[in-house]
């Protein structure tokens, strides 16, 4: 029948359009079938080995970051995170130490030979950050701050891009494209939970986003288990799920004394909890430090 | 300060209330710390071993179910699913074979010595179903059909209760309580994705719900990877995540010829795809048939 | 170009499909361009005049309903609501008086010459309800309880169908079609808020659903301002919005003493508040009792 | 009982906390009970009269803006909008004319004696914008771009702040507080729809947010009917609802030839449609140009 023919043409047309569209994107796997590997001080992110990014929510002092860094180093890990510019819902909450925080991070990283990751929130600070950081993070609230994405695309430094609070996967991929289109293809995507009606968790971890992002793009994909759940008791099980589903790594927050942390006190692990977290992750067989584990 | 004291009293009071509330529930782990084990024809669901429930979306004919059952049996699995009463958005879509479908399921299950699971949609049919089924499923659209829950609570037959399309975890637990409060404690909970703004998947698999439900209740928890994703290409990765996070099992749909299925044709596996799915699941080390795998 | 031609064919094909699909539905305005008018004891719902449905959340006693009915009558209104079968999240909450509640409603309605509306939750009770009620309500949790919809379609009694907690407009229209397809075309649709991430209100009133439902179907459309907001202070403003946007009426809850109500105590008005609500609605010019007001 | 006493203390404590919290905010009505009136070239926004902000989605040329401005002027309106910096999902979509667009807006506004509103997307451009614009808009994607909010708080120019795509009302109020805390209290809030699962509209207009924002803050509140619905056929009904519920004004998009618009072609009105929109709004009695209409 005519209608059947129409439907077939319609399907063909849709596929044509979609092919066209995703072929056009630099971050698309259709354009570039092999995995992008992002080199961070020798760590080859995206090479099939799964990694952890660990550190306090906010940089509060040299001593605080140093204590976490020592614990990270002791576990044989390489990637340290810490917030210097903190986007906060209220203007009266702690806003971070700013450039002072970046300096602390660099000093600690140099001391322990770690790589360091921190969020930058204005185009203007991107250039400053290049001198202090090994990876520049673009946070969830800024995923569609397109001027910031363009600035991140103009430097020669790996970018960790977090998914927006209610961004679709298609919007997330386009945000990465903003960076790549300016010339910087060293991008790590990070799923960190989306906003839904459920209140048992801070956000809802969209675990299916991981295999979709791995299929649609050639970029490494991390899962931030701290912000997606907002619950210390869910960090271990969600980290297992993230590793099992094929994430290139997991990001989580550790603080020497979470109870007095200037932000996110309810969801950070202290150092013994972190060591137990890591031990149980290894025990599960899902995390094998130093070995290729993604199947 | 006065305010600080108020806050402390406030916290104590909140905890008191919560303790009270969840202690009161029969399904709460506070009431009953050890795992409930649901016996289905000798399969001890909730004993630490992880299992699969497999079968076609809809029962279409004896031959169709028989073909899937043979494949299920061949893989050493025990639990067969199939829809006889189909809740469909449009009244003009295929509504299932009804009691005829239940008869087919029983006949096939007897032939292959499998246990059989199917959805019932009215209180009136619960009694009929008892004669044909090993597990009665309450579907997502009926999670708050309280009269159906009460009827399910009044029979001596295991119940698989699916989470509602936009049910909170607290509402889900209360729905299980409706069943238990009528005397039937043989309940399996099933996460099947929630409704969010994201359109890349049919629903959003709320993987964190699994450890929360395991903590809050003593009931076994399954994950339906077919309905949570609606995508054949995501069945394997989400099944891995479900097993890694500690689900007691995974439910998925298999049809001899998905392209001509009367429902859900886009998301069912055919038999060779199912065999590959199972092989890759075993290869990943996450699924060990016949062995206790939850850590 | 070829692609442009494809796109044009694609659009044509899409329109063809949509036309086809909505033409097929009995509730579609394409099928039946003129408004359906539902006669409730002489009130012509859908005739252009806007009406109120008022009453307590739950029927608690003859005296309680009688007191509200007297207030409703005094204001020249005709349509009384009250819950006899109460779907509640917890099995331990008040579940309603059941058939006893229906009898109270009928007795009070007869005394004051009002029409009475109440929710029915199982197919089995629909037949009983026909003797007591002027309108049978299908609640939000049962919008996709298809067996209940079919039963509602098989009686000769107006049905007020509430939108499901997270139902799309398309699913809502299909739920109405379930009723109509069984022979009962006397259907009133009721928007009652949808589940979103926002917690300032109990649900999010989807006000745009009103004009969409009026365009897509020929059925009258009401707005339940009580359940969509869950806040007494928002009843008046949202009722104004509902009338302004073209709803055929507004439903709200009134209780002689909300503080001791057995359900929804925080959102019901007492009788003086209800009288003030009505006075302010008239004062706004948006509500003109007894006159055609929809433009 | 002890528990009852605890509950009472708990409630008292909660109220105390809340009082404290919202009293602390500069934008809170508790702090400042009278309405803030924002003066825009003599228009007293927030004085009880309801107003329209009208103009094309994007500034494309002097002629295009001039044509719309003439139509706006002809209708006795004063407030013209137009996008010069366009935040777009894809980097390959039209990004706006930038400063060139601001110049066109100013030239046209001066010619017709209108006030002009446009979105600014980086802190750096705020200072430039001050010379060209009468109102600086912060868009939905930048509602939690805190550095941009701080920059907007540091200039002496009215700010129109749009609600984020999935911002809670509490987060929206805190975003306004970022601006006010830096010294600029001339803030207009704009509800523009939130992201939900519903796909019949581009976003879901959260109409209840209007009375909540009017209660919680002393700031004027607008409703953007174009972006909340994304459908030309819903502009008139939602504008009526917005005016009826007490918004201080409505924002909508008009383009001389929407079919060839460089953005949002499906939802802009052409000039005759705009004139009909306005005529019907006046006919409804909800919009009275030049008169105080909020009750």
Topology:
The structure is a homotetramer of 295-residue chains.
Chain A: H1 2-24, E1 38-40, E2 43-45, E3 51-55, H2 62-74, E4 79-81, H3 99-112, E5 115-119, H4 123-130, E6 135-138, H5 146-153, E7 159-162, H6 169-181, E8 187-191, H7 209-216, E9 221-224, H8 225-229, H9 235-245, E10 249-253, H10 271-283
Parallel strand pairs in A: 3-4, 3-10, 4-5, 5-6, 6-7, 7-8, 8-9, 9-10
Antiparallel strand pairs in A: 1-2
Helix pairs in contact in A: 2-3, 4-5, 5-6, 9-10
What is the total tally of β strands of chain A?
10
- The largest sheet of chain A has its strands arranged as 3-4-5-6-7-8-9-10
> How many domains, in number, for the residues of chain A?
2
How many helices of chain A in DSSP terms? 10
At CATH level 2, the architecture of the largest domain in chain A is: Alpha-Beta Barrel
- Report the largest inter-chain contact: A-B, 40 and 40 residues
The CATH topology of the largest domain in chain A comes to TIM Barrel
User: What multimeric state do the chains show?
Assistant: homotetramer
User: How would you name the CATH homologous superfamily of the largest domain in chain A?
Assistant: Aldolase class I
- Uncertain segments of chain A of ≥5 residues (pLDDT<50)? none
Largest sheet of chain A: 8 strands, parallel, barrel
Mean of the pLDDT scores of chain A? 93
Strand % of chain A is: 5-15%
List the secondary-structure elements of chain A in sequence, H or E. Answer: HEEEHEHEHEHEHEHEHHEH
Radius of gyration of chain A equals 19 Å
Counting helices, strands and paired strands, the structural category of chain A is alpha/beta
């Amino acid at each position: 029948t005519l209608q059947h023919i129409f439907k077939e043409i319609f399907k063909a047309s849709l596929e044509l359009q979609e092919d066209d569209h995703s072929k056009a994107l630099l971050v698309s796997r259709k354009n570039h079938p092999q995995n992008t590997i992002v080199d961070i001080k020798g760590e080859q992110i995206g090479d099939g080995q799964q990694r952890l990014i660990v550190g306090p929510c906010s940089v509060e002092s040299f001593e605080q970051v140093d204590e976490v860094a020592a614990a990270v180093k002791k576990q044989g890990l390489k990637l340290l995170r810490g917030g210097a510019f903190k986007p906060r819902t209220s203007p009266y909450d702690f806003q971070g130490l700013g450039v002072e925080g970046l300096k602390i991070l660099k000093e600690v990283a140099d001391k322990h030979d770690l790589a360091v990751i921190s969020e930058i929130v204005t185009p203007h600070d991107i250039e400053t950050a290049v001198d202090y950081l090994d990876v520049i993070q673009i946070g969830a609230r800024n995923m569609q701050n397109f001027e910031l994405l363009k600035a991140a695309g103009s430097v020669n430094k790996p970018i960790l891009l977090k998914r927006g609070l209610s961004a679709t996967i298609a919007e997330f991929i386009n945000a990465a494209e903003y960076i790549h289109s300016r010339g910087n293809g060293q991008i790590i995507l990070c799923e960190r939970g989306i906003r839904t009606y459920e209140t048992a968790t801070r956000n809802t971890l969209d675990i299916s986003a991981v295999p979709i992002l791995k299929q649609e793009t050639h970029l490494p994909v991390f899962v931030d288990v701290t912000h997606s759940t907002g619950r210390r008791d869910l960090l271990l099980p969600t980290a297992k799920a993230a590793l099992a589903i094929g994430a290139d790594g997991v990001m989580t927050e550790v603080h020497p004394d979470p109870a007095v942390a200037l932000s996110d006190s309810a969801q950070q692990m202290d150092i013994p909890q972190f060591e137990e977290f890591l031990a149980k992750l290894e025990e599960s067989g899902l995390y094998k430090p130093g070995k290729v584990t993604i199947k």
